[in-house]
Amino acid sequence: MLHPSPQTFAGAPKSTAARIGIGGPVGSGKTALIERLIPVLRARNVNLAVVTNDLVTKEDAERLRRSGLIEPERVLAVEAGACPHTVIREDPTLNMAAGDELEASFPGLELIVFESGGDNLASTFSLDLVDWWIFVIDVAGGDDIPRKKGPGVLKSDLLVVNKIDLAPHVGVNLERMLAEASAVRNGRPVIATNARAGDGVEALADAICRAVLFRE
Amino acid sequence: MLHIDSVVGDRAEPGLHRRLHHLEHHGAVETVTIASADMARRRLRLTTPKGEELAIALPREQKLFDGAVLLIDDDRAIVVRAEVERWLRLQPASIADAVELGYHAGNLHWRVRFEGECLLVALEGPAEAYFARLDALFAGRSIKSTVVTQDLAA
Fold it and tell me: What tens digit of pLDDT does each residue of B110-134 get?
């Protein structure tokens, strides 16, 4: 196994901001969740910034900048250009550079949220880019999504099932969907949310604070 | 909760090795075993065998590794042991099967290594989950499969 050279350890700088990923299919509500998370995390005095990934635009970044929830300069956009998997997994260099830029601009930054460009169930985050990541699906996408066992569903540190308010309107048995999600993940955490109303967002913030900010 | 914000060094370094050897005689070295899938993380929470909670937050240019010393002082030390990685060794019987297997593994974004005429797939979950994805490929073909540990795959 390759080890860092011993000189790496001498005078090692203190750790930098925690980095988390939020991925999931197009339309599952990733940006809406971030819009709900920002005020909840800021109320807990978390110093944060966001990097959005879009295919060929800065649509999500502009939406957050206009939201008034966060200073616009704390939101950077990465344009994936093609396959959105690539910039969060195979070669996350652009996102890592965006994270570094935010840390340089905002000393004391504690948390950077990387929102993936919308994708299918196969996207996963490189742990070179993030420390911990969330995958967001929604009930309107179908209650069979957990059973399809996509890598995002299986490998994420936390699975969020969003738009739970829509379950009765799209014929989804929410209880069964959540149970199946938990089963395919071998009991790893699953949280149900309704980003529009803010339901479950405090629990989501709790999970983030506990996992990477080490707050109880 | 004990916060660890950098790796002290490698347990194999002579200076650290001596100090660890001394502490081991006093039963004062704790080893925390980390799953292979978690070794790439810079931030994680762990509980030591004695029940102490660790909050690890490394600088981005550092990584955990087998033998990383997280803490050492006159009274005790904490050292990382990387869980032995398991690999699925697949041996196709023909070039045609090998090409299709390689395509399939790439399409599933599996982490692989090569060993002669075998493809090694890193198991980051139950082997059954990997076999389930290979069912269609195995049908009517001759591909030998075995699960091996990191040492065997090295």
Answer: 889 999 999 999 998 888 888 888 8
Rounded to the nearest angstrom, the minimum Cα separation between A168 and chain B is 32
Residue B25: strand, helix, or coil? helix
- pTM for the model stands at 0.86
If DSSP states are collapsed to H, E and C, what string results for A146-215? HHHCCHHHHHCCEEEEECHHHHHHCCCCHHHHHHHHHHHCCCCCEEECECCCCECHHHHHHHHHHHHCCC
Q: Tell me: the pLDDT tens digits for A104-125?
A: 999 999 999 999 977 778 889 9
Fold classification of A16-212 (topology level): Rossmann fold (3.40.50)
Answer yes or no: CATH 3.40.50.10490 is held by domain B86-153. Answer: no
Q: Kindly list the residues from chain B whose CB atom is less than 8 angstroms away from the CB atom of residue A214.
A: 1, 3, 45, 55, 57
The per-residue pLDDT for A7 is 38
